[in-house]
Write a structure and sequence with these properties.
The chain is mainly α. It is built from 6 helices and no strands. Helix 4 runs antiparallel to helix 5. The longest helix has 27 residues. The N and C termini lie close together (about 10 Å).
Protein backbone atom coordinates (compact mmCIF):
# COMPACT_ATOMS: atom_id res chain seq x y z
CA UNK A 1 0.00 0.00 0.00
CA UNK A 2 1.51 3.30 -1.02
CA UNK A 3 -1.31 5.80 -0.68
CA UNK A 4 -2.63 6.84 2.75
CA UNK A 5 -6.22 6.79 1.45
CA UNK A 6 -5.97 3.05 0.66
CA UNK A 7 -6.32 1.98 4.31
CA UNK A 8 -9.43 4.11 4.73
CA UNK A 9 -11.02 2.65 1.61
CA UNK A 10 -10.14 -0.89 2.71
CA UNK A 11 -11.65 -0.15 6.13
CA UNK A 12 -14.90 1.03 4.49
CA UNK A 13 -14.93 -2.12 2.32
CA UNK A 14 -14.43 -4.31 5.40
CA UNK A 15 -17.31 -2.58 7.20
CA UNK A 16 -19.59 -2.85 4.13
CA UNK A 17 -18.94 -6.59 3.93
CA UNK A 18 -19.18 -7.05 7.70
CA UNK A 19 -22.60 -5.39 8.07
CA UNK A 20 -24.25 -7.98 5.85
CA UNK A 21 -22.70 -10.92 7.70
CA UNK A 22 -23.13 -9.52 11.22
CA UNK A 23 -26.82 -8.82 10.58
CA UNK A 24 -27.39 -12.21 9.01
CA UNK A 25 -25.50 -14.05 11.76
CA UNK A 26 -27.47 -12.29 14.51
CA UNK A 27 -30.76 -13.06 12.71
CA UNK A 28 -29.74 -16.71 12.50
CA UNK A 29 -29.06 -16.72 16.25
CA UNK A 30 -32.39 -15.06 17.06
CA UNK A 31 -34.36 -17.39 14.80
CA UNK A 32 -32.17 -20.46 15.03
CA UNK A 33 -34.99 -23.04 14.79
CA UNK A 34 -36.34 -21.34 11.67
CA UNK A 35 -32.86 -21.28 10.14
CA UNK A 36 -32.42 -25.00 10.80
CA UNK A 37 -35.82 -25.64 9.20
CA UNK A 38 -34.80 -23.58 6.16
CA UNK A 39 -31.61 -25.63 5.75
CA UNK A 40 -33.66 -28.83 5.94
CA UNK A 41 -36.04 -27.50 3.28
CA UNK A 42 -33.10 -26.78 0.97
CA UNK A 43 -31.75 -30.31 1.42
CA UNK A 44 -28.50 -29.18 3.04
CA UNK A 45 -26.61 -32.21 4.34
CA UNK A 46 -25.57 -32.49 7.99
CA UNK A 47 -27.79 -29.61 9.16
CA UNK A 48 -26.85 -30.15 12.83
CA UNK A 49 -23.25 -29.35 11.86
CA UNK A 50 -23.92 -26.86 9.07
CA UNK A 51 -26.25 -24.56 11.05
CA UNK A 52 -23.85 -23.69 13.89
CA UNK A 53 -20.94 -23.38 11.45
CA UNK A 54 -22.91 -21.01 9.20
CA UNK A 55 -24.03 -18.95 12.18
CA UNK A 56 -20.47 -18.72 13.55
CA UNK A 57 -18.95 -17.90 10.16
CA UNK A 58 -21.37 -15.03 9.71
CA UNK A 59 -21.38 -13.59 13.23
CA UNK A 60 -17.73 -14.14 14.12
CA UNK A 61 -16.52 -13.54 10.58
CA UNK A 62 -18.38 -10.22 10.50
CA UNK A 63 -16.88 -9.20 13.82
CA UNK A 64 -13.36 -10.13 12.72
CA UNK A 65 -13.84 -8.11 9.54
CA UNK A 66 -14.78 -5.03 11.57
CA UNK A 67 -11.68 -5.18 13.75
CA UNK A 68 -9.46 -6.43 10.92
CA UNK A 69 -8.03 -9.53 12.58
CA UNK A 70 -6.49 -12.30 10.44
CA UNK A 71 -8.21 -10.80 7.40
CA UNK A 72 -6.34 -12.66 4.66
CA UNK A 73 -7.26 -16.19 5.81
CA UNK A 74 -10.69 -14.94 6.90
CA UNK A 75 -11.30 -13.49 3.43
CA UNK A 76 -10.62 -16.88 1.82
CA UNK A 77 -12.97 -18.63 4.25
CA UNK A 78 -15.67 -16.01 3.66
CA UNK A 79 -15.27 -16.23 -0.14
CA UNK A 80 -15.70 -20.02 -0.09
CA UNK A 81 -18.62 -19.74 2.34
CA UNK A 82 -20.32 -17.11 0.18
CA UNK A 83 -20.02 -19.21 -2.98
CA UNK A 84 -21.32 -22.26 -1.08
CA UNK A 85 -24.35 -20.30 0.15
CA UNK A 86 -24.96 -19.09 -3.41
CA UNK A 87 -25.02 -22.66 -4.71
CA UNK A 88 -27.02 -24.15 -1.82
CA UNK A 89 -29.32 -21.25 -0.99
CA UNK A 90 -29.94 -19.55 -4.33
CA UNK A 91 -30.26 -22.52 -6.68
CA UNK A 92 -32.18 -20.70 -9.41
CA UNK A 93 -31.75 -23.65 -11.77
CA UNK A 94 -34.23 -25.60 -9.60
CA UNK A 95 -36.90 -22.88 -9.53
CA UNK A 96 -39.82 -22.97 -11.97
CA UNK A 97 -41.68 -19.77 -10.97
CA UNK A 98 -40.21 -17.07 -13.28
CA UNK A 99 -40.49 -14.26 -10.71
CA UNK A 100 -38.88 -16.34 -7.97
CA UNK A 101 -36.25 -17.62 -10.38
CA UNK A 102 -35.32 -14.03 -11.32
CA UNK A 103 -34.96 -13.17 -7.63
CA UNK A 104 -32.78 -16.24 -7.04
CA UNK A 105 -30.56 -15.36 -10.02
CA UNK A 106 -30.00 -11.89 -8.58
CA UNK A 107 -29.14 -13.29 -5.14
CA UNK A 108 -26.87 -15.95 -6.64
CA UNK A 109 -24.81 -13.42 -8.59
CA UNK A 110 -24.84 -11.00 -5.64
CA UNK A 111 -23.15 -13.70 -3.58
CA UNK A 112 -20.60 -14.32 -6.33
CA UNK A 113 -19.87 -10.57 -6.39
CA UNK A 114 -19.43 -10.53 -2.61
CA UNK A 115 -17.03 -13.47 -2.91
CA UNK A 116 -15.07 -11.37 -5.41
CA UNK A 117 -14.86 -8.60 -2.80
CA UNK A 118 -13.47 -11.10 -0.32
CA UNK A 119 -10.86 -12.23 -2.83
CA UNK A 120 -9.78 -8.61 -3.28
CA UNK A 121 -9.57 -8.29 0.50
CA UNK A 122 -7.38 -11.40 0.53
CA UNK A 123 -5.00 -9.67 -1.89
CA UNK A 124 -4.96 -6.26 -0.19
CA UNK A 125 -5.02 -7.38 3.42
CA UNK A 126 -6.81 -5.51 6.18
CA UNK A 127 -5.05 -2.16 5.75
CA UNK A 128 -3.48 -0.08 8.49
CA UNK A 129 -6.81 0.65 10.21
CA UNK A 130 -7.01 -2.85 11.67
CA UNK A 131 -5.59 -5.19 14.25
CA UNK A 132 -3.54 -6.80 11.48
CA UNK A 133 -2.22 -3.38 10.40
CA UNK A 134 -1.31 -2.43 13.97
CA UNK A 135 0.68 -5.66 14.35
CA UNK A 136 2.68 -5.16 11.12
CA UNK A 137 6.10 -3.58 11.60
CA UNK A 138 6.62 -0.42 9.55
CA UNK A 139 9.85 0.64 7.96
CA UNK A 140 11.08 4.16 8.44
CA UNK A 141 11.20 4.65 4.67
CA UNK A 142 7.42 5.07 4.26
CA UNK A 143 7.11 1.84 2.34
Amino acid sequence: MTRPVDSGIIFIARIALAVLFLWSGVMKLLGYAGFVGYLHSKGVPFVQIAAPIATAVEALGGLLLVVGFKVRPLALIMAVYTVATAVLGHDFWNVVDPALQRDMVIHFWKNIGIAGGFLLLFVTGAGRMSVDGARTPRSGLGL
